[in-house]
């Protein structure tokens, strides 16, 4: 079954203007919309339509959403299926509101309602069933904060800084050392849940006063014992952190670190979804902890994704990104599989204890978390302080089998030493299982033997269930050991968290630098410094940038506010003329080539000089200057057209770019211009191209993924070493890049939406 994707549009909030998202229905029954409509940010006359299973508008109550989307999954949960419900959307779109909700009854979100539904169904089951039924519910709750997993049942001051390690268990990923708490009633749950939520990392940003800084995963484990069988299933309710544009959130140091981590994991998720869609052999699921845990498409769970959207223009590009992501996600097929029940009297289990034909079984992890739906026997444990689970149980033949079994049974509280067949628990007497089982027993019939063995098997399974850490918390691993585990894991994953984080800051710094956002670039470089101490190059870069900002201050004052448009308020239209609109390039370092992201001016006199290693293409400066001086800075498209017409005078390349010449030597028909008279539209185009951000380039009109790659490759091919990167300085140069012609250039240019 494909993942069910539903969209929820939150109400417009105070101070929010200009609603641009609307709903529609592809059916005749317009009372059930299933489409989201949003204008094309580059051409307001055009509307994009996205279709999902259902679309909920701002009138939808928490109750309605739950009844339609989540309540139906409860019966599947009781039927032995796993369920995964997750909220996705950019920051401030209502994910936490949807999943957790408010305190009042009407405002309660999906999670408390789900628990309430589970308890209600459990009671109904027990009441109506003719056989005895018992339902045990336990929960675990953890967050992924800055790429580390923390148990939310633990107070932050008691956490190990390294977090909890992850381990693979078949198709599932388990969190080692996670506690599971039994929850007898809804009240129990609410108490635990509220306490744990206080431990969740939240902070205020400009976009959300209580912004979640982590992905939170609640696991609900259901153990339904019906007569002689027990079935375990799990529901995972996931409140993802939202993608963030730091120019809009106003994030500073600590928030920025969190944001980089959030964006990175969400980017990995998007890459996974894309790779699944393309049916790639490699899905980069291991590239982030969140994707490992979510395990989209591979988790064999009934999956519902709630796409949270904000209806207003300030979120335009975020909404579009989310819609595109959801559009791809809805195509993912999941093979839901029912978790196997265990029967107390499972006769088929007997042969495995007989004779020498015992099959070697793979290692089966016993240390589990909620995500491990291994088989349990009935009589779930209720004693505290029982022996903790072994890491692995090995089924093997010969002596090893005996040992493994001995280990299991020896600790069984159900062991009956007087039992004539307690030899199962005595390895020294079980060297020859054949002889033992088939030796003539004058006083016991074969049926009785079978029965006794059946009973024994059940006991062993029950003992194993007692050994499970389902209720008893896992042993606390010392901080030192956990740190080592974490380091080991990073090594296995080929990552080094700190360095990676530092590189992300460097990347963001360079992006800001390319856009001429010196202050933000400086901020990012300073953050990167924490990760690359004693790096002289970085220090000198910071010093030079600081100096440059200082020097520009008086200049800025002279020019007035319009001159420094690079870091203006997003609502200010001027900003769109020169710097990237938060909408079109919000995604931070995505698709960016770290080593290629800095464009270097050849011209030493260019108005932006940034030491030896970092510089922006001077086209950006000339644009800034042009706009600062130009009274027509706010003109609309037609004004730009006239301006461009004047520019058609032809322009000699100054040799700044050594691109690969096209095979056919045609006179370029595209407009050529002198850098000093570039229009904002042209500057913007060149800026996008020179930034080498695949994501942005492919959004240009007439450019697909392949062409975008070809452009970036052509640019990289034209570089003279890593420290001397090529810059496209005119439309003519752009038109001569491999894979790009004058027509494409014109298309790209005219497709740019300018304010
Ligand atoms: N359907 C809704 N009805 C009423 N208010 C809503 C709704 N959805 C969201 N809100 C409000 O919008 C604000 C932001 O919502 P919320 O904190 O849930 O966003 P979020 O997506 O979880 O953000 P973040 O990713 O930053 O944590 C909150 O004040 C919340 O009450």
TrEMBL record:
Which positions fall inside the Kinesin motor domain? 2-332
- One Pfam family assigned to this protein is Kinesin
Which terms are listed as keywords in the entry? ATP-binding, Coiled coil, Cytoplasm, Isopeptide bond, Motor protein, Nucleotide-binding
- Basic and acidic residues biased stretches: 647-657
Listed Polar residues bias regions: 23-34, 568-582
Query: What are the GO BP annotations of this UniProt entry?
Result: DNA repair; microtubule-based movement; mitotic spindle organization; spindle elongation
Q: Which domain of life is it from?
A: Eukaryota
Q: Which residues are ATP-binding?
A: 89-96
Region (Disordered) spans which residues? 23-43, 408-436, 546-611, 631-678
Where would you find this protein in the cell? Cytoplasm
Which terms in the GO cellular component ontology are assigned?
cytoplasm; microtubule associated complex
**Molecular function terms in GO for this entry?**
ATP binding; DNA binding; microtubule binding; microtubule motor activity
Specify residue ranges for compositional bias: Basic residues: 659-668
Q: Which family does it belong to?
A: Belongs to the TRAFAC class myosin-kinesin ATPase superfamily. Kinesin family.
PANTHER family to which the protein is assigned, alphabetical: CHROMOSOME-ASSOCIATED KINESIN KIF4A-RELATED
Per the entry, what this protein does is: Kinesin family member that is involved in spindle formation and the movements of chromosomes during mitosis and meiosis. Binds to microtubules and to DNA. Plays a role in congression of laterally attached chromosomes in NDC80-depleted cells.
Protein known as:
Kinesin-like protein KIF22
Q: What is the lineage of its organism?
A: Eukaryota, Fungi, Dikarya, Ascomycota, Pezizomycotina
């Amino acid at each position: 079954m494909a993942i069910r994707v539903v969209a929820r549009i939150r109400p417009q909030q105070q101070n929010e203007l200009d609603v641009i998202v609307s709903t529609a229905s592809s059916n005749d029954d317009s009372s059930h919309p299933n489409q989201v409509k949003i204008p094309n940010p580059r051409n307001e006359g055009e509307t994009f339509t996205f279709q999902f299973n259902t679309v909920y508008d701002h009138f939808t109550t928490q109750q309605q959403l739950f009844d339609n989307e989540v309540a139906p999954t409860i019966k599947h949960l009781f039927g032995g299926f796993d369920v995964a419900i997750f909220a996705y959307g950019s920051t401030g779109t209502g994910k936490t509101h949807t999943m957790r909700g408010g305190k009042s009854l009407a405002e309660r979100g999906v999670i408390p309602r789900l628990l309430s539904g589970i308890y209600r169904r459990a009671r109904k089951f027990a009441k109506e069933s003719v056989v005895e039924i018992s339902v045990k519910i336990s929960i675990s709750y953890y967050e992924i904060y800055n790429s580390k997993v923390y148990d939310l049942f633990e107070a932050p001051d008691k956490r190990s800084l390294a977090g909890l390690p992850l381990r693979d268990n078949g198709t599932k990923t388990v969190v080692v050392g996670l506690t599971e708490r039994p929850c007898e009633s809804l009240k129990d749950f609410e108490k635990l849940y509220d306490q744990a939520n206080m431990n969740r990392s939240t902070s205020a940003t400009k976009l959300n006063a209580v912004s979640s800084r982590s992905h939170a995963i609640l696991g609900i484990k259901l153990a339904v014992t019906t007569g002689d069988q027990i079935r375990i299933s799990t529901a995972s309710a996931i409140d993802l952190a939202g993608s963030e544009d730091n120019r809009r959130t106003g994030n500073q140091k600590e928030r920025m670190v969190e944001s980089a981590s959030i964006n990175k994991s969400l980017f990995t998720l998007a890459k996974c979804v894309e790779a699944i869609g393309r049916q790639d052999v490699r899905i980069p699921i291991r590239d982030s902890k969140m994707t490992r845990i979510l395990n989209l498409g591979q988790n064999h769970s009934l999956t519902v994704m709630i796409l949270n959207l904000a209806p207003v223009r300030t979120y335009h590009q975020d909404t579009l990104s989310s819609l595109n992501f959801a559009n791809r996600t809805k195509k993912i097929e999941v093979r839901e599989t029912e978790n196997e029940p265990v029967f107390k009297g499972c006769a088929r289990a007997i042969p495995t204890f007989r004779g020498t034909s015992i099959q070697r079984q793979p290692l089966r992890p016993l240390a589990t978390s909620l995500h491990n739906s291994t088989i349990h026997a009935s009589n779930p444990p209720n004693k505290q302080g029982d022996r903790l689970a072994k890491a692995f149980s090995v089924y093997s033949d010969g002596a090893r089998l005996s040992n493994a079994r001995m280990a299991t049974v020896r600790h069984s509280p159900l062991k009956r030493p007087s039992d004539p067949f307690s030899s199962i628990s005595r390895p020294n007497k079980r060297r020859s299982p054949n002889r033992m089982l088939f030796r003539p027993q004058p006083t016991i019939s074969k049926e009785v033997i079978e029965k006794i063995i059946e009973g024994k098997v059940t006991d062993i399974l029950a003992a194993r269930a007692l050994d499970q850490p389902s209720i008893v918390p896992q042993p606390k691993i010392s901080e030192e050991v956990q740190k080592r585990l974490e380091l080991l894991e990073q090594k296995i994953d080929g990552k080094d968290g700190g360095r990676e984080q530092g590189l992300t800051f460097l990347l963001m710094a360079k992006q800001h630098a390319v856009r001429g956002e010196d202050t933000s670039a400086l901020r990012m470089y300073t953050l990167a410094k924490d990760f690359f101490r004693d790096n002289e190059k970085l220090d000198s870069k910071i010093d030079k940038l600081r100096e440059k900002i200082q020097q520009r201050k008086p200049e800025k004052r002279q020019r007035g506010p319009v001159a420094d448009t690079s870091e203006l308020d997003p609502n200010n239209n001027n900003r769109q003329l020169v710097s990237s609109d938060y909408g079109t390039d919000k995604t931070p370092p995505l698709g960016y080539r770290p080593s290629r992201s800095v464009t270097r001016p050849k011209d030493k006199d260019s108005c932006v000089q940034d030491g030896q290693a970092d510089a922006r293409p001077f086209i950006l400066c000339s644009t800034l200057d042009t706009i600062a001086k130009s009274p027509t800075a706010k003109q609309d498209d037609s004004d730009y057209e006239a301006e461009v017409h004047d520019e058609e005078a032809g322009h000699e390349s100054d040799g700044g770019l050594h691109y690969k010449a096209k095979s056919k030597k045609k006179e370029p028909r595209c407009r050529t211009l002198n850098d000093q008279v570039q229009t904002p539209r042209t500057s913007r185009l060149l800026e996008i191209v020179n930034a080498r951000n695949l994501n942005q380039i492919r959004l240009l009109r007439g450019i697909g993924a392949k062409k975008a790659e070809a452009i970036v490759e052509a640019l990289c091919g034209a570089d003279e070493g890593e420290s001397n990167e090529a810059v496209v300085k005119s439309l003519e140069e752009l038109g001569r890049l491999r894979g790009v012609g004058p027509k494409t250039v014109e298309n790209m240019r005219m497709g740019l939406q300018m304010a």
